[in-house]
Amino acid sequence: MASITLIFVSLLIIAVPLWLMMEYLIPQAAALLENRDLIINRFEQLKNWMADKPLLNRIDMSSDALFQWVQRAGSYVPVILGSVASMLANIVVAFFVLYFMQINSKRMEKSIGSLFPDARTCTIHSGVEGVAPAMWSVPRPRELEGKTVVLSVGVFYERKGFPLLVEAFARVAPKYPNAVLRIAGDGETRVGVEEAIVRYGLQNRVELLGFQPYERVLQEMVWADVFALIGWDEPFATVFMEAMSAKCPIICANDGGVNDLLRDGIHGRALPPRDKDEAAAALDQLLGNVAERERMGRAAS
């Protein structure tokens, strides 16, 4: 009896994967590969759409090269398994191009919808691990004792608006002599940020931290009193969610994807893009009101 059961289970283990392959994987692969031109066309459309998007324009692999690469996956394993690997690789790539582009904000969903009107899309907001409990017990560095810290984090390029943030901070700095601005990050517009710091005489009030490890950035958020990133045209930026997990009130532009979740006046301030007056007013509001900062920080977390 035990032998019969063992044989039955063994046959079942073999039969089920074969059935799945015959009923689903092979027909699906065939259907996708029959539409190879459509897949390539959509991939090219996606590349063209990303071409003028900062940080996304480094995709230099052509669609044909991508397909050739995944099809060569079969050459590294035995012939039969290689055929299966090649088929599955094509399925993965095709599904990525056609179905599995991550859309993490309503704003981005709208953009993708305008590019692919017939596509079915769904927004899934990015999640973050957040601040580790042990970080709350790490004391501030001595140089930050008694300071009100405004933190910003990001790659330095134009639409992040770091020179504008420095200018907005310069407007309120005389009113709050204990306030400092710390910026973690680096990039192609660093010179412009440095020039703004010198132009407004903030060499002792603004510190450029450069690129920092992820854990250090989270720790900086715990030490901060306000998180400000006022760049425009921001698809989502998980850095906002990380700062909110650290109980930081947020200052951001109101055209970004984070506004799906962030409410102006509740979790922080959402401002018109490129508006230095509003940015300065938001800094003034939060630097001058500890209770307001703490209320928004609790709501954000």
Structure explained in plain terms:
The protein contains eleven helices and six strands. By secondary structure, it is α/β, with parallel strands linked by helices. It folds into two domains: 2-100, no CATH class; 133-300, Glycogen Phosphorylase B (Rossmann fold), CATH 3.40.50. A six-stranded parallel β-sheet has the order 3-2-1-4-5-6, sandwiched between helices. α1 (2-34) crosses α4 (79-98), α6 packs parallel to α7 and α6 (162-172) packs across α10. It is globular, with a radius of gyration of 25 Å.
- The assigned structural class equals alpha/beta
- Counting DSSP E segments of at least 2 residues, the number of strands comes to 6
Please estimate the helix content: 40-55%
Kindly estimate the percentage of residues that lie in beta strands according to DSSP: 5-15%
The CATH topology of the largest domain corresponds to Rossmann fold
Main sheet properties: 6 strands, parallel
CATH superfamily of the largest domain: Glycogen Phosphorylase B
The CATH C-level name of the largest domain is Alpha Beta
Mean pLDDT: 77
Q: Which segments are poorly predicted (pLDDT under 50) over 5 or more consecutive residues?
A: 53-83
Helix count equals 11
Broad shape: globular
Strand order of the largest sheet: 3-2-1-4-5-6
Radius of gyration, whole Å = 25 Å
CATH architecture of the largest domain: 3-Layer(aba) Sandwich
Q: Termini, distance in Å?
A: 60 Å
Order of helices and strands: HHHHHEHEHEHEHEEHH
User: How many domains?
Assistant: 2
